[in-house]
Queue: 4 jobs
Job 1
Amino acid sequence: MGYAPYVGELIDAYDLVSVAVEAGQTIYVTYTKTNAQTGEVYSGRASGIGTPEEVVDRRDATPHHKNSEGFGPAVLDKATTDPQAARGREQLLIEKHGSARSAGGTSGNAINGISSRNQKKATYIKKAIEWFGKVF
């Protein structure tokens, strides 16, 4: 995993998530779902208590709105204790996989995770890069 700035030190992000899981605190995850027939990749985020895999599995079982469109099971991408980092990571994944269709893109996402008009977009992207590094 990447590194996250924390009180002037670099702490391994995996360790922070592990501590949060052990303490029963909320964690934030990003995930992808792929449509095997079209090759489209949907990117999403979720939050909850438990391991990152448990959070993704619960989100996928709700049922997920993309299941009926032929998208396969959700696959964990990354986990964090920072909701802003997860939100930025989701947007970066959408862009990596072709951008939202509302923006003329080809990903499995109809809209962006963060509106281009959202004044906090740069903050979310910066937090994602701090936690996980660049997506592409």
Job 2
Amino acid sequence: MLKKTLILCACLAMAAFAKPVIKITLDKEDHLYKCGEQAVFTVEVSENDQKLTDKVETVFSLDGGKTIKKATMDLAEANPFTLQGTLDKPGFLRLTVTLRQKAEGTPKPTTTIGIGAAGYEPLKIQTGAPEPADFLAWWKGELAKADKTTPLDAKQEPVEFKNKGFKAYKVSFAAPGGRVYGFLTVPVKPGKYPVAVSVPGAGPGASMPNAVGGMVSLTMNVHPYDPIAPEGKTIKDLYNDLNTLDGKRVIYMYHGGPDKEKLFYHRAIIGIVRSLLWLEKQDYVQPDKMCYYGSSQGGGFGMILGGLYGKFQAIACNVPAMCDHYGALDGGRRPGWPQYMMQTAFSKAAEASKASVPYYDGANFARHITCPIRVIVGFIDNTCPPSCVYATYNALASKDKQIFNCVDMGHSGGPAYNEAVKWAREIVNPPKKPAPKK
């Protein structure tokens, strides 16, 4: 009886603290439309399965950028209600619905946001700026310069790992401006193995090794600090220290900007490419069987490494960041993370930024990717808006490319990414066929 009472109390407590839900559906299941075609958005707002009677603010925008139209809707008059909109050129029409409720005992109202998006001929979306004429030559020149001025100084240190089928190492490599760090796992059984490479999403980075069955695995962080922190500090401490610049909080990706030789990712890109060139020469590696997968920042690095290193047999990029930095030039749509041109250091130095930011644009690296690649896009992604992902996808040189639309997904992962990772691994490490029965 006590157990049933506790369960009931827990359910009542959950109901009491349930948040309002803003449900947005479109008249087309795939959320895809032709330019000029009207998209019908149906909005329903509820709490504890009860329809609300508040007022909500609605905004149609160009994928979270330029506002197209806005209106206040009274839920007491209609809930659900419908709104219509369209675009006359390729892009994404985003509807943002905001509910503000006065909470008892607090001076500020609580805010609930719902998002829906319609894609208008997204396979025709182009990047906001062209590729610099010397783009690939400049990067190859930077790699050559690093080889002349900065010895690789590869370091490999064994680390404890629970999976007894693998040997695990912390690795690091020198690059102009500092080092790059990561983790390497190698099967204990002697042999030559295919390779899975990844770069983590934005944040502190990987702090421990990761194993992939039957493969060598290399995970490289973008940060210049040792991920196995010194005594008394955690990786989060090191990350917080990194994000402090001249006594102010400045997140790492903006460090050094807009100087293209000093921008934070200059060291990271060169260092990680050098780590791959080192790895492919190891006697336990099959250099012709290497794949890559990553999400967000890691997805952006899939474009960067795919175009600059150029030796992967398969790439999977989930909601890739660092793409189409000049998307705002295309009618005012919101650019992808880290939105360089929306940051003070870049916008104030506009001319210098125009000369540097394109060299760090995943879309320009994508133009040099020829291997099979799979891309996952979230239609309601605030961090890496779908128009920027599509602009990058459309720039890919690969003849074997596919994009998977997750119409109700924001900046996250899901089954589509899991399937893409599995696909990439199996390209270089096909599953063994069962032996025929005798």
Job 3
Amino acid sequence: MTVTRFAPSPTGFIHVGNLRTALINYLISKKTGGRFILRLDDTDPVRSKPEYADQIKRDLEWLGLFWDSVETQSSRLDRYVEVASNLKKNGKLYEAFETSSELELKRKKQLNMGLPPAYDRSALKYTSDQILKLRIDHPGYWRFFLEHNRIDWDDGILGKISIDAGSLSDPVLIRGDGQFLYTLASVVDDTDMGITHVVRGSDHVTNTATQVQIIQALRKSVPSFAHHSLLTGAKKEALSKRMGGLAIKDLKKAGVEPMVLLSQMARLGTSDPVELRTSVDELVKHFELYRFGSSPTKFDTKELYALNTKYMRLTSLGNISETLSELQVPDNMKEAFWDIAKDNISTRSDLEKWWKLCSEGAEPVIEQIDSEFVKVAISLLPKQPYDQETWTNWTKDVKDKTGRSGRDLFMPLRKALTGLEHGPDMSKLLPLLKVIK
């Protein structure tokens, strides 16, 4: 059975970059009738917050990406202790004591000598007595001993990958304060939970190389790996949990529709055009991992909102009825109101201003040059209620009375009734409009 996971750290709000990883993993599992696990990588006790974890769940539920089970790393610390203990016994974990400044000095010397800035394993030379003395000053941290051979795998997106482990530093798996780092905790979870496919950003490629060796040291099966391109902002800047406006919760608040966001994410990074889908099941049906590329991929909010505008125009009254009820649009007016509003909104939140215009009317906008013309026109306007013939009949009477035509006729009247230069077809809007004379 295919088993995938989405493993965010609850140290901030997830953004579109995180969503892309979640969606791809979700689609892989559902394409084959497999399982999708939400795993909260919350081993950092300081930065991990319950409010972030709760928001991650709300975001995924809003998008319709439902998990088969949820796991937390904070509940699995005893398991990490057990695995780490076995790795120490097998000589795969060793204690090191260099400070960050000492390591930085070593790296500079290696670079000056034209060598790769990999850890020199000087900690392996410590005797037992030296280690005991070093622990008096500060606790050591633990590194995994990499075998200096090539690490190969067939990447689901990047193709064949081969990395020389001799150019890599032995990764730190346990900090001096005892905190288990991502590299170890993720491997233990993936192997224990039977994860068959791991899809993540291309910034994890080197991480994957070291994790392959850790998995092999645990004598477990290595999952299939795939590394998708990284999303950048409109100016090619890296995305961050702290970037305003790109968090899923912010896009929801801004009125972006779930299927619009998912439709864009499902094709972003492929050569295929974005197609609006009406359900997650449709996304599953048309998903193919091999179509994704490795080049950095720009995420443009303008394209997202343009797609959202298109989606709103295609949305049926049935799908928008609940929102209209929340705005207190009477049932007998919903169809007519949606007919004039859908072509004039980008998000459903835009509906509020159009209903306010219809139900409360607008302050007239009248240019001085048009004041007498508007006064005459308003005197010719019949009493409400209006129908879809009222606008045509009224403007004909005004034209006959004043001699105005074209833009000089219609624009001042639109502005006088709506306070706006642009908007819905006035013949359809007028029957819904509260006119302020």
Job 4
Amino acid sequence: MITGGITPNREATVRLTIFSSGGQQQQIEAMVDTGFNLFLTLPSSLIAALGLPFAVPAKATLADGSIVDLDCYWVTLLWQGQPRRIVALAADSSPLIGMSLLYGSRVTLDVVDGGPVTIEPLP
């Protein structure tokens, strides 16, 4: 089970462990974004610091409908206690967890300040 909380800004956040290209662990706080249908976004500065390998270029449609070119990088993270290799989009924002990463999970939110956020695998 992955846990987190609701921030005073009404964001559902959880802590994730990701790995550098050399295998070193790094903890990040990521926001659950049900409007994002891919896996994960990471700041470009973090991608560079971790030395993540380039995967592919991609086009992404933002919430305002605009289309932008973004680069994708391979990253390994701990997901439900297991290493999982996924593609993360480089975006100059806080890390976002998208619906493709959440697929196969139950997400529970108590939407009050400090309320719990849980992500668990579906039975």
